[in-house]
């Protein structure tokens, strides 16, 4: 579905990613883990088209989208779910959701149907549809961020640390919501710091280190938490780049 091959990227003269490659198969839930500042968000920015790589390529269903403008990617079914704190705080919940369907604005009937679909999935957003997004709790904002992405009718979602700054009980709710997306048939790339959550829901995990994938395991019975822990303790934080 999504293939990221040999990406070199960074900011100005600082290179952060050194030949990073990841595959997300159709319907797969792939977790990308790594310590602070290792380049996880940088990788998502490259895939979402917010940062142009110096080398390497990104393909979606075999089509090269490396230089496709960011705003054209949702129309191809590829959508970034930013952290909940990045919702439009001054706009209502419903206005935020409608922004997610902006590129489909000519299909008003379809948009209304999709809005109902998001409300069915997240009843709390329906209750709060007229409230400013800035007034929502952290968990509700994360649901809004996911709901906004769903309005673009994606096939592939990039989730940027959906558990960040949430209480454990709320993390469980978000994990459930992500599993629900999978049941919809979506392909998912999940960037996380929360190893426990990733182990619980992902089918494959990768750890980024030194700007490339340094550790990869199939989760289903194939990864021992101790093995992962010792990888982190041996320098999972980016001290090689
Ligand atoms: N816009 C930017 N300009 C310059 N440097 C940046 C920029 N964004 C990120 N960086 C740097 O790039 C490196 C990787 O950052 P990135 O946000 O990709 O890490 P991360 O793995 O997502 O970390 P975290 O889990 O803490 O969010 C860091 O050293 C960061 O300071």
Automatic annotation (TrEMBL):
KW ATP-binding (keyword) present: yes
Single Gene Ontology BP annotation: L-amino acid transport
SMART domains: AAA
Alphabetically ordered keywords of this record: Amino-acid transport, ATP-binding, Nucleotide-binding, Transport
Molecular functions (GO terms): ATP binding; ATP hydrolysis activity; branched-chain amino acid transmembrane transporter activity
InterPro entries assigned: AAA+_ATPase, ABC_transporter-like_ATP-bd, ABC_transporter-like_CS, BCAA_Transport_ATP-bd_LivF, P-loop_NTPase
Domain of life per record: Bacteria
Segments forming domain ABC transporter: 2-235
Family: Belongs to the ABC transporter superfamily.
Entries under PANTHER family matching the protein: HIGH-AFFINITY BRANCHED-CHAIN AMINO ACID TRANSPORT ATP-BINDING PROTEIN LIVF
Name assigned to this protein: ABC transporter ATP-binding protein
């Amino acid at each position: 579905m999504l293939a990221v091959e040999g990406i070199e990227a960074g900011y100005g003269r600082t290179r952060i990613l050194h030949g990073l490659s990841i595959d997300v198969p159709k319907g797969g839930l792939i977790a990308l883990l790594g310590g602070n500042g290792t380049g996880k968000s940088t990788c998502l920015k490259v895939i979402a088209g917010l940062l142009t790589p110096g080398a390497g390529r990104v393909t979606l269903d075999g089509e090269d989208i490396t230089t496709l403008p960011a705003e054209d990617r949702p129309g191809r079914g590829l959508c970034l779910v930013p952290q909940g704190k990045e919702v439009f705080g001054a706009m209502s919940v419903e206005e935020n959701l409608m922004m997610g369907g902006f590129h489909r604005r000519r299909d008003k009937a379809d948009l209304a149907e999709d809005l109902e679909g998001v409300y069915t999935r997240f009843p709390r957003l329906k209750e709060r549809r007229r409230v400013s997004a800035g007034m929502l709790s952290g968990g509700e904002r994360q649901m809004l961020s996911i709901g906004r992405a769903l309005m673009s009718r994606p096939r592939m979602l990039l989730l940027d640390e959906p558990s960040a700054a949430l209480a454990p009980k709320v993390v469980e709710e978000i994990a459930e919501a992500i599993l629900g997306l999978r049941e919809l048939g979506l392909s998912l790339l999940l960037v996380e710091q929360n190893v426990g959550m990733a182990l619980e829901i992902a089918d494959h995990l990768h750890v980024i280190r030194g700007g490339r994938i340094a550790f990869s395991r199939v989760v289903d019975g194939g990864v021992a938490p101790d093995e992962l822990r010792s990888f982190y303790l041996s320098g999972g934080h980016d001290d090689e780049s």
